[in-house]
Amino acid sequence: MPLLTVGHRGVMGVEPENTLRSFLRAEREGFDVIELDLHLSRDGALVVMHDADVDRTTDGSGPIARKTLAELRELDAGQGERVPVFEEVAEAVSAPLQAEIKDRAAARVLARAVERLGLHERVRVISFHDDALRETRKLLPEIPIALVTGSSTPTAPERAADLGADMVSCELPRLTADVVERCRGMGIEVISWTVNTDRDLARVRELGLDGVVTDLPAVRRAIVSGAA
């Protein structure tokens, strides 16, 4: 099977991350899945941004949780882009989405959005946080979930199995053949982040992974062409 290609925050290597511009570019480039990050604004909107504050990716400053959606809309998220909300992304693109959440509160709001918009077949909820995934599993029993891991990658297979996740997304430098083998034994797919170089792709092939999370359209093209 060809590798699953996941566009990281859209295609953040060539467009402003987590913006509609980035997500639309990822869809045009043919990515199988688009990944995005979610935080709650002060008034409970599902804001699409990676960091807990706006400093790095906008011309503003301060925590997302202390700003209303209207205040966040006033910020420039790069090249004139505005900070989107989850519902706008779901409408703007038709590709499947990996929605990363940080806590149980976001899980509850996302579950309501998935129910309201009928997105059960398009959304996989992903997180580093077990509690957030447990909350998702309780609210959306049938929706696919994935555990994301960095330093905790050695424990990924057992944690994922305990959560009922059928996929793990592991930091590539921390991923070992042993972890992959244990996942395989439990029927869990393994993808890795962030795969941006030929050397990264070679390691993905060596480990026999199911997919990659990448910042770059060129990586997607290399996989499709069979160059990797």
TrEMBL record:
InterPro entries: GP_PDE_dom (IPR030395), PLC-like_Pdiesterase_TIM-brl (IPR017946)
Coiled-coil zones: none
A Pfam family that the UniProt record links to this protein: GDPD
Domain GP-PDE: 3-224
PANTHER family in the record: GLYCEROPHOSPHODIESTER PHOSPHODIESTERASE, CYTOPLASMIC (PTHR46211:SF1), GLYCEROPHOSPHORYL DIESTER PHOSPHODIESTERASE (PTHR46211)
Stated name of the protein: Glycerophosphodiester phosphodiesterase
Organism of this sequence: Streptomyces desertarenae
